[in-house]
Amino acid sequence: MSYNHKEVEAAAQKKWEEMELYRASDDSKKPKEFVLDMFPYPSGAGLHVGHIEGYAATDIYARFARMQGKEVLHPIGWDAFGLPAENYAIKTKTPPQESTDAAIANFRRQIKSLGLSYDWSREIGTHTPEYYRWTQWFFLLLYKHNLAYRKKAKVNWCPKDQTVLANEQVVDGVCERCGAVVEQKDLEQWFFKTTEYAEELLAGLDTLDWPDSTKAAQRNWIGKSEGAEISFAVVGSGEKIKVFTTRPDTLFGATYLVLAPEHPLVDTLILNTENADAVRAYVADASHKTDMERTTEGREKTGVVLAGVSALNPATGEEIPVYIADYVFGSYGTGAIMAVPAHDARDFEFAQKFGLEIRMVIDASTGAAGCAASSGALTNSGQFDGQNSDSVKHAITEFVGGEMVTTYRLRDWLVSRQRYWGVPIPIIYCGKCGTVPVPEKDLPVVLPKDVDFIPTGESPLARSKSFHQVLCPKCGESARRESDTMDTFVCSSWYYYRFTDPRNKQAFAGAAAMEKWLPVDLYVGGAEHTVLHLLYARFFTKVLRTLGYISFAEPFQKLRHQGMILAEDGRKMSKSLGNVVNPDDVVSKYGADTLRVYEMFMGPLDVQKPWNMKNIIGARRFVERVYRLLEKRTDSEPKSFAPILHETIKKVGGDISILKFNTAISQLMICLNAAEAGISDESLDIFTRLIAPFAPHLAEELWQQLGKDGSVHTAKWPEYNEAFLAASTVTLAVQINGKRRGEISLAPDASEDTALAAARAIPAAAEALSTGDNARIIYVPGRILNIVLPASAK
Ligand code: ANZ
Ligand code: ZN
Questions:
Q1: Whose CA is nearest to atom 10 of ligand 1?
Q2: How many Å apart are CA 71 and CA 18, to the nearest integer?
């Protein structure tokens, strides 16, 4: 009885499609479950095995939820705008529309071949006018509520190609394409006011079931900082330099000031300096540097003194020099700092280089860390001497007329892109009326097709007369349409709303649909590059809530990341290394179920793990053995099987709900081993349902061969019987070379094979067992499993 995966999988997929099995019903009275994958960017390279890891995980979760009686919304779509398609278009002269649609068709085919239970009736693409009309509507909504505004901002500019570059296109300060030194250029740009929600974005994190590291990254990005603003009078002028400091307690040790090169006062102060040329040269030089280059640790500090300019330290009354240095940023705090070289490492480095006074104001002997104590008793601080640095911050700030303030590192979101392949910004500029939003009834502003998208420095849309020459919607005079497009993160900030009501023509989604399905119950995607997406999606949700469109505060209640899948050689999979695994090959040779089981058995979902061809064959064997249980059917199933089966029901259900798929599969393996001694139809029915979320095609085939009606995927998840569980398992220590590495639960009389299968769920044991036949196994049923490696394999 050989297993023909091609036939089985094609038949099952056809059956599901005919039954419309995965269509989510808006009218269902069942409890809802919204299970969401981060929708993919449809790249020309096709699906990566890393995509599949996340998709298989959510698919198992969604199928399990359906079998538990939930109404599941499990949608998929395409995050289709973006730079790669545009670059490809520039290179090959293929319109981005065409290459994107081709890539989507390929992705769709690949995803369907995996038997993922998506509701295809809700498929969306962010590049379709039906979708981006609402992206434009969101822009107008933000504009109407003063959350979108325009101002000058720096962009990366390649002087040779005469084009704006995305940050990713700037490599070590030069243009990725031509190697010219990239400049910073000021352009009028659109911003969304994310900073208005900084505090809410921060506070909301505490309510979420997200990985701690992801929450920490969000907190870090928002960067809340409590400190003081203190003004320093410039000697001989009416000007004041206001600094932001988190350490007002060190004010007596501030021996010089530093302005960012882009500080607005530089232009004024330069008039009083004796070295204006040197200052101008330094400022010009700094303008070529990216923030990244400026912050690089270990880079030697640079700067220039404003010769002849000095300021008064308001605490000591002493005159101190003023410098300009690029380690201070114009966009953070006030763009100026008081430098305390005795207690700040950056200031210390700078002071040493420029021979500036370093004055200790915290008594080293009282501090925790020794020399440059960060806190302790004040010294050299006048009336504050002897007081604790942590407790005098307010007092010193007040003493010099400063003000305690809270700042955030978070900046407003720059959404303008001088690109073709994105959503046109729905704004018109009129000589008479100024900035005029496109009336809602005129949406969508459609991306023209007859455009030369070779970059020249302005948006390609600016060169399409038919696009940018318009009549002002207010006064009817001729006007100019905005020719920039939006950052693609705007498209992905609201797509999960659209999934709840994807064909709505009156609204981005109906209120009832949103209230029914949202928030998302489980969201899964990679950990890399998602800080901004998650932040922006949360920002959109906060705005919608403020404006009364929704009642919940956070879009994604529970978030998990899949770990990166490395190549067999332990390196990152990449085209240039030639080590990319093509999922099509695996599906064709071994089947989708094998690929799914393999990827879910590789290890815990969230850890990084290398590909391994040998283990694929193991997964395939597992699938075949499950299939051959049809031959093991018996009327007299061994008595010992029921306890194992019920333990498996309990373990697999419990593990799926906490996304521990590898341990669920290892329990299924234990159960399979036992089942091969003979299994009743009734038990095989249960086992088939347990296997259904993991190997959905195989389960459907078994279901049919058992003569069952309908689909296994709408069958009920089995319930375990407590009576069978008592005393049916023992806990066994797993050792490697006599050292305890974990434990497994097993029947007291389980075979060695069963014990080894269970032990593979422990990563160290799995690794030890993969050393071939070298490992010696000491197994005492009910007592211990020890894997002994020869000295060389340790
Ligand atoms: C004096 C001082 C003494 C400082 C000391 C630190 C330690 P966070 O915590 O990240 O908010 N700073 C302020 N504005 C800056 C800017 N625009 N560019 C670069 N650095 C800036 O950091 C706040 C501290 O970073 C501030 O406190 C200031 O240095 C510096 F022993 O003031 B501090
Ligand atoms: Zn007008």
A1: 225
A2: 19
What is the per-residue pLDDT for 683? 98
Residue 792: alpha-carbon gap to chain centroid: 41
Residue of 576, 734, 738, 740 whose CA lies nearest to 666: 734
* Sign of the torsion formed by the C-alpha atoms of 667, 671, 676 and 682: negative
CA–CA separation, 171 vs 176, rounded Å? 6
Q: Say if residues 653 and 716 touch (Cβ distance below 8 Å).
A: no
**Residue 24: Cβ-neighbour burial (10 angstroms; 0-12, 13-18, 19+):** buried
| Ligand (nearest to CA of 479) | 2
284-312: string of b/e by CB count within 10 Å (b at 16+)? eebeebbeeebeeeeeebbbbbbeebbbb
Closest CA to 97 of 83, 118, 111, 81: 81
- Kindly list the averaged pLDDT for each block of 10 residues, start to end, along the chain of length 794: 93 98 97 98 92 98 98 98 85 88 97 98 98 98 98 84 72 80 87 97 97 96 96 95 97 98 94 93 86 77 96 97 96 95 94 96 68 80 95 97 95 90 97 97 93 73 87 96 94 98 98 98 92 96 98 97 94 90 96 98 96 95 98 94 94 97 96 96 98 98 97 97 75 90 83 87 86 82 87 58
Q: Which residue has the tokens 């490809």?
A: 88
Residue located nearest, by CA, to atom 32 of ligand 1: 245
> Atom 11, ligand 1: which residue's CA is nearest?
225
Domains contained in the chain, CATH given: 225-406 (3.90.740.10), 728-793 (3.10.20.590)
Cβ-based neighbours of 264, under 8 Å, separated by 6 or more: 335
- Give CA separation, 81 vs 134, 420, 685, in Å: 15, 9, 46
- Which residues sit with their C-beta closer than 6 Å to ligand 1? 225, 244-247, 250, 260, 328-329, 332-333, 335, 337-338, 340, 343-344
Residue 168 phi/psi, 5° resolution?
Answer: -65, -20
Using CA atoms, how far apart are residues 447 and 460, in angstroms rounded to an integer?
11
State the distance from the centre of ligand 1 to the C-alpha of 225, rounded, in angstroms.
10
Cα of 272 to ligand 1 centre, how many Å? 27
**Beta-strand relationship, 319-324 and 304-312:** antiparallel
* Residues 370, 381 contacting (CB under 8 angstroms): no
Residue pair 275/323 in contact by the 8 Å Cβ criterion: no
Continuous segment of H or E residues that includes residue 230: strand 224-233
Tokens of 565: 């899948």
Tell the burial category of 566 from Cβ atoms under 10 Å away from its Cβ (0-12, 13-18, 19+): middle
Site to probe by mutation for ligand 1, drawn from 224, 246, 362 as the one with most ligand atoms within 8 Å of Cβ, is 246
Span from the CA of 194 to the centroid of ligand 1 (angstroms): 23
Which atom of ligand 1 lies at the shortest distance from residue 342's CA? 31
437 Cα: distance to centroid of ligand 2 (angstroms): 11
CA angle 283, 272, 248 (to 5 degrees): 70
Q: Which of 83, 215, 132 is nearest to 490 (CA)?
A: 132
The set of residues, in sequence order, having a beta carbon less than 8 Å from that of 558 and lying 6+ positions away, is 208, 209, 210, 521, 522, 523
Residue 548 burial (CB < 10 Å; 0-12/13-18/19+)?
Answer: exposed
- The secondary structure element, H or E, covering residue 312 is strand 304-312
Burial class (CB in 10 A: 0-12, 13-18, 19+), 151: exposed
Calpha distance 184→157 (Å, rounded): 6
φ/ψ (deg, to 5) at 26: -70, -20
> Going by CA atoms, what residue is nearest to atom 33 of ligand 1?
245
Give the integer Cα–Cα distance in Å for 224 and 48.
37
